C-alpha cells in the first residue's frame, strides 16, 4: 500500500488531495493546527490525523515516527503554509517578526521535515511536492513576504531535486482556489468565482502519475488525464497568488 504525508491536510487543497489518495487505496497521514477540524477531515478522508504545528520540532518527530512505522513513504506534500498578517501589508510595512514567522512556516519547517524523511523517500524512489504560488515569481502589491518565502521554498525544493535524481521533485503552482486562506487575502471580496481545490487535485494526480522530469510546474498545464503541452518546468500563471 503506497503511503503519503500531506501537511496542512485539514482544509483546502491538502484535504482534497488526502481524500483523493485515500479513496484510491493510499495510506495517508495529514496534520494541522486545528485538532477538531483535522479530526473531522480524517473522518471524511479516511486519513490518519496527527494534530500539531509543522513548525514544532516535536510535532515533526511525531510525523516522522508515524510514517516510519509503515516502512515506506511514496509521497510527501509540503502543503501547510501561512499567508502572514492580513490585510496583506506592503513590503515597506512588513515587520521583521512577521517575515520570521512566514519563513519558519513556509520554508524552514518543510525543509526540516524533508530532511528527516528523505531516507524513506529515497528507499521508495518516491515523490516530493512543494505547493508554490505564482507570487513566487510575479510581484503583486501586498504579497511580497509570502511570495519571497514561496520563492525560497521553490529554490530549496528544486535544489533537492538536483541532489536526489532518483526522486521526482516538484514545485507546483496550483493556481487560484476558493479557500479560507485565499479569502483572508481578500477580506470582504467575493471569491466564489475561484475554482474549488477539488478541481485541482486531478491535475496534481496526473502530474504524479506521469512523473515528468523534476521541476517547477503549474497544475493548469496538466489535464485530468494528461498534460497540455508540459514537458518540463513551465512558466507561471498570471492570476493572483494561489492560497492553499
Keyphrases for this structure?
9 strands; alpha/beta; disordered C terminus; Rossmann fold; two-stranded antiparallel sheet; 244 residues; seven-stranded parallel sheet
Just name the CATH architecture.
Answer: 3-Layer(aba) Sandwich
The helix content, as a percent range, equals 40-55%
Average pLDDT reading: 89
Radius of gyration: 17 Å
Q: Which range does the strand content fall in?
A: 15-25%
Distance between the termini: 27 Å
- Supply the number of structural domains: 1
What is the name of the CATH topology? Rossmann fold
Relevant CATH superfamily: NAD(P)-binding Rossmann-like Domain
Total of helices: 7
Order of helices and strands: EHEHEHEHEHEHHEEE
**CATH class value:** Alpha Beta
Shape: globular
Q: Spatial order of the strands in the main sheet? A: 3-2-1-4-5-6-7
What does this molecule look like?
It is a single chain. With 244 residues, this protein is an alpha/beta fold. It has one domain: NAD(P)-binding Rossmann-like Domain (Rossmann fold), CATH 3.40.50.720. The chain is built from seven helices and nine strands; from the N terminus they run βαβαβαβαβαβααβββ. The strands form two sheets. The chain has a seven-stranded parallel β-sheet, with helices on both faces. Helix 1 crosses helix 7, helix 3 packs parallel to helix 4 and helix 4 runs parallel beside helix 5. The longest helix is centred in the middle third of the chain and has 29 residues. The two termini are 27 Å apart. The C terminus is likely disordered.
Amino acid at each position: 500500500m503506497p503511503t503519503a504525508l500531506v501537511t496542512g491536510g485539514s482544509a483546502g487543497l491538502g484535504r482534497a488531495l488526502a481524500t483523493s489518495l485515500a479513496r484510491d487505496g493510499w495510506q495517508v497521514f495529514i496534520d494541522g493546527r486545528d485538532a477538531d477540524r483535522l479530526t473531522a477531515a480524517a473522518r471524511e478522508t479516511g486519513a490518519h490525523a496527527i494534530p500539531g504545528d509543522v513548525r514544532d520540532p516535536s510535532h515533526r518527530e511525531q510525523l516522522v515516527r508515524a510514517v516510519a512505522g509503515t516502512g515506506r513513504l511514496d509521497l510527501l506534500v509540503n502543503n501547510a503554509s501561512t499567508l502572514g498578517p492580513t490585510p496583506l501589508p506592503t513590503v515597506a510595512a512588513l515587520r521583521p517578526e512577521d517575515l520570521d514567522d512566514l519563513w519558519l512556516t513556509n520554508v524552514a519547517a518543510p525543509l526540516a521535515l524533508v530532511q528527516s524523511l528523505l531516507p524513506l523517500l529515497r528507499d521508495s524512489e518516491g515523490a516530493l511536492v512543494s505547493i508554490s504560488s505564482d507570487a513566487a515569481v510575479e510581484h503583486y502589491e501586498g504579497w511580497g513576504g509570502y511570495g519571497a518565502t514561496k520563492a525560497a521554498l521553490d529554490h530549496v525544493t528544486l535544489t533537492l531535486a538536483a541532489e536526489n535524481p532518483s526522486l521526482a521533485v516538484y514545485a507546483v503552482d496550483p493556481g487560484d482556489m476558493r479557500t479560507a486562506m485565499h479569502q483572508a487575502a481578500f477580506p470582504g471580496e467575493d471569491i466564489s468565482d475561484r475554482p474549488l481545490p477539488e478541481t485541482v487535485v486531478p491535475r496534481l494526480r496526473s502530474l504524479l502519475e506521469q512523473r515528468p522530469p523534476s521541476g517547477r510546474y503549474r497544475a493548469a498545464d496538466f489535464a485530468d488525464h494528461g498534460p497540455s503541452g508540459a514537458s518540463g518546468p513551465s512558466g507561471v500563471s498570471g492570476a493572483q497568488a494561489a492560497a492553499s
